[in-house]
């Protein structure tokens, strides 16, 4: 797609499933918000019933980076794609979820053996959706500054459309942003989350694993990796940090605040090729990601 001058328009500039001026595009167009996916994945790893399905039908613990990449590709096609691309992605995800079902073989934390699970269950899907939305808001606000109440409300109203596209009935999702906060805070404190030692170590590897480079290159990128690790752990809800065994203290919090301030100031000078998510910079209508074909 091109404008009158023949210049190719970027996906973020053209209305699709979401409008060019939508809050969803405003938040997810920022490349650093992509890292919020790790926070969401760690929150999801603490949902016992969902984890059983993950372990049987997903690569979440065996290859979490690939899982994050696939999630980003699919979600970005919804955020920045056309109506057709978003609907196609929604159908594909719903079809995958329809195949993920079964019965637990053994007790797992608060979940007894013999408990039925299904990825299409709105109760399971809601925690996944809420963790994605909550994480994006946390990253965007702590890096770029607080949103006002209307912007948060607008973002969640738009994100509910993502939930519906992925198969969640409208009445299964919190109606307002305040309701979303109540839901997330309730799950963090109601005893429904849990993780065992084996899965805890696998989940922590998502944050703690060294960069996948050769030794010399790894040395060069380690300072950046340490900053990303600090931010990834610091952005987690305190309850999830405790579940995963991450320590935190005032000194680390001070380092986190300093790192976030540097990001906020530095990002103002980044060129679009660095600051914007690749899907937002794609030519409008172009399919994004390796899974787009």
Structure characterization notes:
The chain has helices at residues 23-28, 36-44, 48-57, 64-80, 83-99, 122-144, 149-165, 177-189, 197-208, 215-234, 238-244, 250-266, 272-275, 278-281; strands at residues 101-103, 116-118. The mean pLDDT is 87. It contains 14 helices and two strands, in the order αααααββααααααααα. A two-stranded antiparallel ribbon has the order 1-2. Helices cover 60% and strands 2% of the residues. The radius of gyration is 19 Å and the shape is globular. It has a domain at 11-199 and 277-292. The protein is an all-alpha fold. Helix 2 runs antiparallel to helix 6 (122-144), helix 4 (64-80) packs antiparallel against helix 5 (83-99) and helix 10 packs across helix 12.
Helix and strand layout, with pairings?
Layout: H1 23-28, H2 36-44, H3 48-57, H4 64-80, H5 83-99, E1 101-103, E2 116-118, H6 122-144, H7 149-165, H8 177-189, H9 197-208, H10 215-234, H11 238-244, H12 250-266, H13 272-275, H14 278-281
Antiparallel strand pairs: 1-2
Question: Helix proportion of residues, in percent?
Answer: 55-70%
Radius of gyration: 19 Å
Spatial arrangement of strands, main beta sheet:
1-2
Strand content: under 5%
Structural class determined from secondary elements: mainly alpha
Number of strands: 2
Number of helices: 14
Order of helices and strands: HHHHHEEHHHHHHHHH
Main beta sheet: 2 strands, antiparallel
Instruction: Give the integer mean of the pLDDT values.
Output: 87
- Gross geometry: globular
Spans with pLDDT under 50 lasting ≥5 residues?
none
Please report the distance between the alpha carbons of the first and last residues: 19 Å
């Amino acid at each position: 797609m091109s404008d009158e001058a023949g210049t190719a328009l970027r996906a973020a500039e053209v209305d699709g499933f979401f409008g060019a001026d939508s809050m969803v595009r405003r938040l997810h167009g920022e490349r650093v918000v992509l890292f919020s996916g790790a926070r969401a994945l760690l929150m999801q790893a603490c949902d016992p019933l969902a984890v059983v399905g993950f372990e049987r039908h997903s690569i979440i613990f065996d290859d979490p980076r690939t899982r994050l990449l696939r999630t980003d590709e699919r979600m970005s096609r919804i955020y920045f794609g056309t109506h057709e691309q978003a609907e196609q992605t929604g159908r594909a995800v719903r079809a995958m979820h329809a195949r993920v079902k079964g019965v637990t073989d053994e007790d797992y934390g608060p979940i007894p053996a013999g408990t039925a699970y299904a990825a299409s269950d709105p109760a399971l899907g809601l925690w996944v959706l809420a963790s994605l939305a909550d994480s994006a808001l946390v990253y965007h606000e702590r890096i770029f500054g607080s949103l006002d109440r209307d912007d948060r409300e607008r973002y969640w109203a738009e994100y509910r459309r993502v939930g519906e596209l992925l198969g969640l009935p409208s009445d299964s999702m919190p109606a307002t942003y305040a309701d979303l906060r109540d839901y997330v805070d309730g799950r963090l404190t109601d005893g429904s989350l849990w993780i065992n030692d084996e899965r805890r170590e696998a989940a922590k590897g998502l944050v703690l694993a060294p960069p996948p480079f050769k030794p010399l290159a790894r040395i060069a990128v380690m300072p950046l990796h340490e900053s990303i690790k600090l931010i990834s752990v610091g952005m987690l809800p305190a309850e999830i940090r405790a579940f995963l065994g991450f320590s935190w203290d005032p000194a680390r919090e001070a380092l986190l605040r300093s790192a976030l301030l540097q990001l906020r100031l530095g990002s103002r000078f980044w060129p679009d090729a660095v600051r914007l998510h690749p899907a937002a910079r794609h030519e409008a209508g172009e399919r994004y990601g390796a899974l787009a074909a």
